[in-house]
Amino acid sequence: MLSPVMSSRSLTGRGIAALILGIVALLTPGPILVGLTLLMGGYLFVNGISALASALKKEVEGRGWLFLEAAVCIVAGIAIFVRPVFSAFGLTYLIGAWAVFTGALQIGEAFILRRHIRHEGTYLISGVLTLLLGFVILSGPLTGLRTIGVMIGLYGIMFGIFSLASARHVKILEESTVEGEQRRAA
């Protein structure tokens, strides 16, 4: 069986990581630049590893999108860890560029997911949210860190919710596919 873009476990992991990012960013939007930087770097790295793990599964449709997303997220995460005291301006551009590129990739992944489930819209909304976050950040890079922290917090919570909803829909697909294969084997 060809698998959809991501497994329900990968989507659940992404959703939980995004919710943690969102909550922590909303609770500490102030002058804790290094903490927010490392948190964002950790989130990007986990997000990239999840995409890479999904891309390495056998018979995955949309493997190229996942490898590209994984590379972007892992490289951005490592760049943040290497230079955690980045200037706010540089970090803003890095986060904005990551969000625009990753959002576009997630939108592409949603169209592949459409072939497998009816409610791919939750995954599409996740991609649109990521894309919009990037455009908002890039349109005002000198915005205060508190504002960027709040935007990232709201994004994390919304992305987390939509990723968890997508995971539920993919889980239903996975269960129905396994049941169908078991009936055919019997």
Description:
This protein has 186 residues and is mainly alpha-helical. It has one domain (8-178): Serine Threonine Protein Phosphatase 5, Tetratricopeptide repeat, CATH 1.25.40. 80% of the residues lie in helices and 0% in strands. It contains 6 helices and no strands. The chain has helices spanning 8-27, 33-55, 63-82, 88-113, 121-139, 145-185. Helix 1 (8-27) runs antiparallel to helix 6 (145-185), helix 4 packs antiparallel against helix 5 (121-139) and helix 5 (121-139) runs antiparallel to helix 6 (145-185).
- Between the first and last Cα atoms, what is the distance in angstroms? 17 Å
Number of domains: 1
Shape: elongated
CATH class: Mainly Alpha
Q: What composes the largest sheet? A: none
Considering the chains and any ligands shown, give keywords for the structure:
6 helices, 186 residues, Serine Threonine Protein Phosphatase 5, Tetratricopeptide repeat, 0% strand, mainly alpha
Topology:
Layout: H1 8-27, H2 33-55, H3 63-82, H4 88-113, H5 121-139, H6 145-185
